[in-house]
Design brief:
By secondary structure, the protein is mainly alpha-helical. The protein is built from seven helices and no strands. It is elongated.
């Protein structure tokens, strides 16, 4: 069952945010459901079709939004005092780094997308209007 799997994950990796998310984390979950998830099929279409320069601005917005939320999550993992949490959280530096490693790809992939959108000449090209 999915709830059992979630409980096992939260226990194994000491991630209390999954079992009892803080209010700010819930806000990020809603953003993911209503902003990020709808972006995926649009982006998949644009990248699979190729040549879709219009994806640049939505991809920049998506990647900066996700990176911003992940910075807050990673900071929480590194610096929050989990000793008062109802569910077991990371206590040692090693436990914090293990949990951090679970979330880190969710930061790295959007940063790679942002880098691609900003630096790849295909997406940087701006068409000039022809003068009559």
């Amino acid at each position: 069952q999915l709830t059992d799997l979630l409980q096992q994950y939260a226990t194994a990796f000491r991630d209390p945010m999954m079992l009892q998310p803080p209010e700010w984390f819930k806000a990020f979950i809603y953003c993911e459901a209503f902003l990020q998830l709808p972006f995926f099929p649009v982006a998949a279409y644009a990248f699979l079709k190729g040549g879709c320069r219009w994806i640049r601005t939505p991809a920049i917005i998506y990647s900066t939004h996700v990176a911003t939320t992940l910075f807050a999550i990673l900071a929480h993992i590194l610096f929050h005092d989990f000793s008062k949490s109802e569910h077991a959280g990371p206590q040692t530096l090693r436990e914090r780094l293990v949990l951090l490693s679970i979330y880190l790809p969710y930061l790295l992939i959007p940063l790679l997308l942002l880098f691609t959108m900003l630096c790849n000449p295909h997406y940087k090209h701006v068409e000039k209007r022809k003068r009559k």
